[in-house]
Amino acid sequence: xxxxxxxxxxxxxxxxxxxxxxxxxxxxxxxxxxxxxxxxxxxxxxxxxxxxxxxxxxxxxxxxxxxxxxxxxxxxxxxxxxxxxxxxxxxxxxxxxxxxxxxxxxxxxxxxxxxxxxxxxxxxxxxxx
Length: 129
Hints:
Blueprint: E1 11-13, E2 23-33, E3 40-50, E4 54-56, H1 58-66, H2 75-90, E5 94-104, E6 107-116
Antiparallel strand pairs: 1-4, 2-3, 3-5, 5-6
């Protein structure tokens, strides 16, 4: 296989640094292992962010997500680790990661973690009639 999982997150320059705009990435095939049982946990990751100077490159993000496939991690820990790694890679103005884990034993888990850059003020939403 020519591609392999990787913890490296590649970046590229934000093409419109003077504007707040939102990037949304849905990843419906996230997997990691339950650290208690070793059984696979499946989740959909929903990443939303407002970039500052850098954006995350999608192929590297895909390979990064893939790198968790054989790692044991609690839902709360892995969600926060992914957010921390992304924030460290691109220093966004704002970032939210929602991890929606599939049912396990009749229980669904959603973990939502956020980052907001110091001094950044969110724009006022425009409400159209």
